[in-house]
Specification:
globular, seven-stranded mixed β-sheet, four-stranded antiparallel β-sheet, 18 helices, 522 residues, pyridoxal phosphate binding (chains A, B), 11 strands, Aspartate Aminotransferase, domain 1, homodimer, alpha/beta
Chain lengths: 522, 522
């Protein structure tokens, strides 16, 4: 056997034979399975390591020349990567929209990679294609509540699509506005449509100077990205002020009329069902009415808040969502599915035909290949994770999860209001709220200094690594002119207890009181 | 304890305590770990089930009301989903670009979900952000071979980016052309740029009627999708004929000049390094020259073929790739990483600033958040899978894999040429080739009938489920006028033996000879 043949034989083993049970990688796996919380608390340790220090572990762009043993590499990952990761599972990590996951996703992740299907095309996904279509149907029903006949007709129709699965809310929002743009500038007897002839020709044909999209200042940054990508220009996203944190339908009506009088066509209104920064829900039913008046697309970004629809106690908070032409949902937020499970659903099963593509060797006409109407091409089978969650939790289970989150946010708001060092800056909406350090004892609210103090505390808390809240800058009802710096928390982790919340406030108060700005201000 | 409290207590268990080792899901996991090939051959069984039958398993859009036990659901997934999936691991499944994966990815998938980092933002990814930047640097070096100083300067720079990780080649191609468009129609003293003011204003300012992109007819369908999304219009993708399967640089030069004389600006030339249909590589160095002459962006779609650069024996086949302004690479193809690992790399570390975005609560200016210059927002940490593969295989290991694939394709071509029933329709390029049933004994090549026969055999073979080749329609050197139907195979699976290849040909010959068209034609 030559050296090359021997190396090749060794390589084949990596494709066929796992190492023994005593291998480092399998030990890690076992620990993950046995007790994820324990694994993370033991291995995610270096939370106060600076980013620069972490970067030193990952600053070699040279390709390694020689192979490394799997066990050796596993140890390397533990030391350099896992130890410096963020413990998103921790009940005191409440600053972002991801949280603890149900343990069964660990096993399913392995099944997903073992099957390694490609959802772009039915030949490499087969059962996953119908499964994904069913999941999209379930999400469609969650939002639009159509009857059985509707789903019998459209769920598996090759000429229709109830939505698209994608990596996340950004792609979902871009997809929705792409459909809106292509539908508005569609083909007619004298024009071949924006899809074929482009945006400039479309605007000219229909006599529009520009296309605008109306939303609130709390609209997700991905909407601006969408405007850029779609060629509409970021400045044509008109983000209306919202000191009350929600979009004022009357202001949208006025602005829309004003624009249309100037020859600028309103292409879409985007309402938000759970803003990223404060959790507020726009008046969806009223916005739908304005969209009808302005003859434009109505999109709802419910990436984070959409899961509220599972709860019969709280679904009413999203009243009017079923009037939307399209809705963005992220299962990796309040549906407790791992990262990478975004979706857009369309009310009209014909809608996505505005962006349908075909090719010879793939996505043949009449085929049910999912890639024909989605922005992404090759994709993995993440829909399975949501499918499993929907069955294992059931609607009832999700309702319990949603309800406990909202209850917890309300209890936390009370704790903040009862605490002399803090100010609740926006009341809890869904399970999100914002607050800041602002002791009642301070003479006057010197917001500039308070901003510095809040920013410093948030950073110190993050670096200490026991807990994490995020921060943002907001105009609020009490501070409508200049944005103030606030803490932002999302109470979605079912493992977070009231004790955790008290501990977080105590830590912040302690850090604040030790800070020199505190002394200056008191 | 009320019923609701009891249910909630049960739900918490799903977040904290795995079921016992005897649970169905853990049994499945164990089987996956012990012997993936055996798991798949036992459970992926119903390969001749019709799509309609599979759809019946997934035709209920109603949300399940009540929770289901995890073990019960695991059994359901095995019966309905896994059994009807495609065995992409099988050495006789050679029709697509995915293949068997090294076993360590199963464990890593579990680690990835256990950590559940969100790469959009450093606060929820921390070590994963530097890791992803390193991986992008490694891919940049694979393509552009810059020196250590270059990477020391740019790898972790907040104001630069060497590329973007994304779900797949489609998003990578869209990202590259997005950067090209925004760079071409950039801001100057009298114009705020296409990113802010949109495409129509950009065209007007620069005095272009339209923007065109030149590629060959073998260009990936995602390029047309990109033209649509970016507002350029699908018709402005000029796909030049290529009976030799590669783009003729002189034809591009002529067409480019012709367009520019008409006031249509050539925005980009897209060369392909490994076409999806035949594996051919365009003359990249010549195309780069034409791009320089036309003052346009040069993009190379090396989604599939890029991994060839790992092999010192075959890297020369991609000569000129380092002259590209941007390159698409898919690690889930010839780098043997699970689905969902696409990338685009940019020669100029400033390039992606043309699409940079900021937001208050996220992607703050000067931050190193990866979401600031990527099309996608929230994303998972797939880069870890490629990082691990690069270390565990090393460049040497990848070279062995690439070399064995190319050798195998060449051997398969000889088998086909030696077989009286088959015709090699395109010679092997990289590890891809096409062929068809066309017995020497047949009187004249009645291509219409042969197409029907080849199509029928491909379908029957797929339905029988022992093996899988894909099919497409192609113009070739011998048949330059009307496309013919051909089989298409990718010999990337290291587990595929010559015996497997003989078996595939035998099965096809047998199916063909039993078909009524064969009798008609002989």
């Amino acid at each position: 056997m030559t050296r090359a043949e021997a190396s090749l034989a060794h390589l084949y083993k990596v494709f066929t034979k796992p190492e023994g049970n005593d291998s480092r990688l399998l030990q890690i796996e076992q620990h993950l399975s046995d007790n994820l919380a324990d694994f993370l608390s033991r291995h995610v340790v270096a939370s106060n390591t600076s980013l620069e220090d972490i970067e030193h572990h990952f600053d070699d762009a040279a390709l390694p020349e020689h192979p490394q043993f799997v066990s050796e590499h596993a140890e390397h990952l533990l030391e350099k990567l896992v130890s410096n990761s963020v413990n998103t599972y921790s009940p005191r990590f409440i600053g972002h929209m991801t949280s603890a996951l149900p343990y069964f996703h660990l096993s399913l992740a392995k099944l997903l990679v073992g099957l390694n299907q490609n959802l772009v095309k039915i030949e490499t996904s087969k059962a996953f294609t119908p499964l994904e279509r069913q999941v999209l149907g379930m999400m469609h029903q969650l939002v639009y509540e159509q009857n059985d006949e509707f789903y019998a007709q459209y769920l598996h129709s090759a000429r229709h699509s109830l939505g698209a699965f994608c990596s996340g809310g950004t792609i979902a929002n871009i997809s929705a506005l792409w459909v809106a743009r292509n539908t508005l500038l569609k083909a007619d007897t004298e024009f071949r449509g924006v899809q074929r002839d482009g945006l400039a020709a479309g605007l000219q044909h229909y006599g529009y100077k520009k296309l605008a999209v109306l939303t609130s200042q709390r609209g997700h940054y991905s909407l601006r990205k969408a405007m850029d990508v779609l060629g509409l220009g970021r400045e044509q996203l008109i983000a209306l002020p919202c000191p009350d944190q929600t979009l004022d339908a009357e202001a949208v009506r006025q602005k829309g009329r004003e624009l249309q009088e100037q020859g600028i066509k309103v292409m879409a209104i985007v309402g938000i069902a759970g803003t990223t920064e404060t959790g507020h829900v726009d008046p969806l039913a009223e916005l739908a009415e304005v969209a009808t008046e302005l003859h434009c697309h109505f999109h709802v970004d419910a990436a984070w808040g959409g899961a509220t629809l599972f709860s019969r106690n709280h679904a009413h908070l999203l009243n009017g969502i079923k009037l939307a032409d399209s809705v963005t949902l992220d299962a990796h937020k309040q549906m407790y599915v791992p990262m990478g499970a975004g979706m857009v659903v369309f009310k009209d099963p014909q809608a996505s035909n505005a962006v349908r593509h075909h090719a010879q060797y793939i996505l043949r006409e009449g085929s049910k290949d999912l890639g024909a109407t989605s922005l992404e091409g090759s994709r993995n089978g993440m829909a399975m994770m949501l499918y499993a969650s929907l069955h294992i939790f059931g609607r009832e289970g999700y309702q319990l999860l949603i309800d406990q989150s909202i209850d917890k946010a309300r209890r936390f708001a009370v704790m903040i209001e009862d605490h002399p060092d803090f100010e609740l800056t926006t009341s809890p909406h869904l399970c999100l709220l914002t607050y800041r350090i602002r002791p009642a004892a301070f003479q006057s609210p010197d917001n500039e200094k308070l901003d510095m103090l809040n920013k410093a505390v948030q950073k110190q808390q993050r670096e200490a690594g026991n807990s994490f809240v995020s921060r943002t800058r907001l105009e609020t009802k009490d501070y409508p002119e200049t944005p103030i710096t606030v803490f932002r928390v999302v109470l979605a982790n079912p493992l977070t207890t009231d004790e955790d919340l008290h501990a977080i406030l105590d830590e912040q108060a302690q850090l604040a009181r030790a800070h020199k700005i505190w002394t200056e201000l008191s």
